[in-house]
Design brief:
Largest sheet: 8 strands, mixed
Number of strands: 29
CATH architecture of the largest domain: Alpha-Beta Barrel
Radius of gyration: 25 Å
Shape: globular
Helix content: 25-40%
CATH class of the largest domain: Alpha Beta
Distance between the termini: 42 Å
Structural class: alpha/beta
Number of helices: 12
Amino acid sequence: MIKGSFASHRMCKTTIRGGAILTVIFLLSPPLETSAGVSVWAAGSTEKIQDRNRSQLPHDAVWNAQSGTISIDGVRGERVAFHVVLTVENEDCRDVTLRASELRDGDNVLAAGRVRFFYEHLAKIYAPSGRHGKRGFWPDALVPMTQPLRINAAPLHYGLRKRNQPIWVELTVPRDQEPGRYRGAVTVSSAGKELGSVKIELKVWDITLPEERKYPVNIGLWENHIARVHGVKLDSSEFKRTFRRYLEFFLDQGFDPRTNPGLSGRLEKGKYVLKCQDPELEKLFLDRGRRRFFISPAPMGIPRPPRGKAFSSTYKAHVQEHCRQVIAHARKRGWYDRLIFHVPVDEPKSARDYQAARHWSEAIRPVDARVGLAVTEQPKPENPAWGSLVGHLNAWITHGNYVYLDPESILERKRAGDHVIWYISCDQLYPQPNVFIDREAADMRMISWLTARYKLGGFLYWTATYWREVRDPWMDAAGWKSSNCNSPASGEGSLIYPGHLVREYTGQDNVEGPVGSLRLALLRDGFEELELLQVLRDLGGAEEADKIVGSICRDLRDFSRDPNAIDKARDRVIQGILKRK
């Protein structure tokens, strides 16, 4: 059951007026019945369409079944997506293909190559992720379509032999696209016979998404798990090539991989020496706009002292030399202002842990009093007897529960000039958002709006590749099994899929590197909207931006999961920008 003040809030699609727009129109003719009994329809992006069910809060205001038109909007530089759904009854449907024409408005053209199709792999969720999860087949992996599809009707024992197969359709609007009305078509066929011509109305406003992101999303990648699933050695050239594809994928999606930028350190004749062993990797990050470099202050190859124990003079000297050389290298290469040392005391829960964090600060601050120094903790300790970390650190990676419970201490640190971001973990339960596969699609899109609600500087997720407890995430989506923290959970720590297994599980061509997910795409789309909110603020619309955010987010446990309401808030942002341009 959906609960909360925003739970039942629905909205009708409003007509957007004023401002220069680019409108792209595909056409969807009325569904044609084939011998396989196939119908074609569409839905907005923020919905998880299962094999037999739609969401309790469907993304349906954008879809006009009578005219067969889906109406969506975007800005230049943005990726705009929706679902085309094939519903198969009674018989299987073979050799299904989708084809896009070029989109035209007079002499202006939006190339057909800007439209991409992704098969939505339906993962079997055999154990609910928490009390608000649900068993069943849920869409998640987004597999680039390279081969015709076969869509099987439901087995006979289901009773009604009816099955949905969603296809993710993603259109990238060029940054130099001329405003106007564009028309084109997507044709759905089976074995050469046309099933339907899909028609979409896409408004792209006379606004361009900023190239430089102001709200980084930092996502970890566990290299040893990637190597194991791909069957390669961690130190092999095969792994290096594969891992680079993973990094390129995340950078292309607008995310910062939370990984070492090619630095390596060791003791040489008693002196600590730091080198950049992979300058091409560092160049990749810089060329592709990585916004944050989280670096451990622990010198490489040197054992750490027990947590809470004071550093020896020798170890402290190694820490300082490591940090000094990292800082010097970052200054030389132009990423010092993006550097944050992440103290290796994860989620401190005792006086000893707090003292350990202070030891790191005491070692680093004499080297550089200005450099970012972060801890995965909230500014106000759970137990005052532990003492405070304020003054020792200037960057905070805050658990969502504490964002909800103590927003004032976060605002206080922001007013003092500290950097504050937040993260979601297994123990942030409904009605708070989470990344589980069997959760509403809006959870992922609303993470960005909640970031805006609390005026946070970005978002962090611990890893996209926690594959320790499964052979691979294609076979078993419940990769979080043995923890005491809300297990089992499907999708916890696992946001992508290894591409070398695509053919085995979907019949599509293998991918070198990873395959994305519906959850990750919605997270990306939400943070593109957050960048638009910042555009509105920069144009003098900060008060209006806050009101818009407040219209769908009261707090972390009271926000709208209705995609149509989120679309309405987004539209208000766009209108606010156009009004001030």
